C-alpha cells in the first residue's frame, strides 16, 4: 500500500526567504503530484512529475522527483504572501489510485 | 475555466434526508471519476472510484449504501448521501483525468455539505 508522508505539516515563512517541503513515499509510484489548496476551496494542480530526476518550475515554485530515494520536494523561492495556502503532494499506487500526503499549511508573513 | 464542475457548491440539508452532488467533466469524456471527502484541516480521503456504465468501487470503510454513486454518462457522476446525519457534514470533491493533458488530474470546485 502506498503511503505518502509530507513534512513539515506547518511552515511559517518570512517573505523573501527560501523554503522546502518534503514528500516521501513508501512504494513505487507512477507519478508524483503537487497541489495547492486555498481555504474553503478545492485543489489547484501545480505539478505532475513523471520520471526520476524530473524538475518543473513555475514562478517561485520548483518541484523535483528522486524515485530512487522516493522523495519529491517543493521548493519555494523568495516567499511572498500570495503563496500562503496548504500544499499537498500525492502519488498513485499500482491501481492508479491517489494517495495524498497530510498537507503542509504555509503561512507567509512580512 | 473549470475543467471539472461540481454542483452544488454548498448545500444544507436536514438530518434524515438525502442530498445529491453532481460532478461534470466539461468538454471531455471521463470514463473514470473519483470522489473524495475532506474534513477541516485534513487531507483528502478517497471514497470511491466511479466507473461509467458499471458499479463504483468503494474504499474500505466507506458505506456504499450510504454514499450512492452513479456514473450514468461519460460526463456526469453523482454522489448521493442518503439519510444524512451531522457526521456526514464535510467537503466533498470529485476529480477526473483530462485526456491528453499529460496525466494531469483536475479536481472539481468541491461541495460543502452541512447536515443540521
Could you please describe the fold and organization of this structure?
The complex is a heterodimer of chains A (110) and B (116). Chain A is mainly β and 110 residues long. Helices cover 0% and strands 56% of the residues of chain A. Chain A has no helices and eleven strands. Chain A has strands spanning 4-7, 10-14, 19-25, 32-37, 43-49, 55-58, 61-66, 71-76, 85-92, 98-100, 104-109. The mean pLDDT of chain A is 93. With 116 residues, chain B is mainly β. Chain B is globular, with a radius of gyration of 13 Å. The termini of chain B are far apart. The mean pLDDT of chain B is 91. The chains are: A mainly beta (110), B mainly beta (116). Chains A and B meet through strand 5 and strand 10 of A and strand 5 and strand 10 of B.
Strand content of chain A: over 45%
Structural class of chain B: mainly beta
Write the H/E string of chain A, N to C.
EEEEEEEEEEE
Tell me the total number of β-strands of chain B: 11
Helix content of chain A: under 10%
Shape of chain B: globular
What integer is the average pLDDT of chain A? 93
Major sheet details of chain A: 6 strands, mixed
Count the E strands of chain A: 11
Continuous helix count of chain A: 0
Q: Structural class of chain A, please?
A: mainly beta
Number of helices of chain B: 0
What kind of sheet is the major sheet of chain B? 7 strands, mixed
N-end to C-end Cα span of chain A = 41 Å
Query: What is the residue-mean pLDDT of chain B, rounded to a whole number?
Result: 91
SS strand fraction of chain B = over 45%
Low-confidence runs of at least 5 consecutive residues of chain A: none
Spans of chain B of at least 5 consecutive residues whose pLDDT stays below 50 are none
Instruction: Sketch the topology of chain B as an H/E string, one letter per element.
Output: EEEEEEEEEEE
Cα Rg of chain A: 13 Å
Amino acid at each position: 500500500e502506498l503511503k505518502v508522508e509530507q513534512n513539515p505539516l506547518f511552515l511559517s515563512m518570512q517573505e523573501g526567504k527560501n523554503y522546502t517541503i518534503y514528500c516521501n513515499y513508501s512504494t513505487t509510484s507512477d507519478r508524483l503530484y503537487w497541489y495547492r489548496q486555498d481555504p474553503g476551496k478545492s485543489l489547484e494542480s501545480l505539478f505532475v512529475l513523471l520520471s526520476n530526476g524530473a524538475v518543473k518550475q513555475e514562478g517561485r515554485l520548483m518541484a523535483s522527483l528522486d524515485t530512487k530515494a522516493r522523495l519529491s520536494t517543493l521548493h519555494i523561492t523568495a516567499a511572498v504572501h500570495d503563496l500562503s495556502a496548504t500544499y499537498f503532494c500525492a502519488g498513485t499506487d499500482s491501481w492508479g489510485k491517489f494517495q495524498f500526503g497530510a498537507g503542509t499549511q504555509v503561512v507567509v508573513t512580512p | 475555466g473549470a475543467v471539472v464542475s461540481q454542483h452544488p457548491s454548498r448545500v444544507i440539508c436536514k438530518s434524515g434526508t438525502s442530498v445529491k452532488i453532481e460532478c461534470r467533466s466539461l468538454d471531455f469524456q471521463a470514463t473514470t471519476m473519483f470522489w473524495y471527502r475532506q474534513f477541516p484541516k485534513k487531507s483528502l480521503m478517497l471514497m470511491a472510484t466511479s466507473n461509467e456504465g458499471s458499479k463504483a468501487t468503494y474504499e474500505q470503510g466507506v458505506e456504499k449504501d450510504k454514499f450512492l454513486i452513479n456514473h450514468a454518462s461519460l460526463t456526469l457522476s453523482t454522489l448521493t448521501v442518503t439519510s444524512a446525519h451531522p457526521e456526514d457534514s464535510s467537503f466533498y470533491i470529485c476529480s477526473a483525468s483530462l485526456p491528453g493533458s499529460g496525466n494531469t488530474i483536475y479536481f472539481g470546485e468541491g461541495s460543502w455539505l452541512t447536515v443540521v
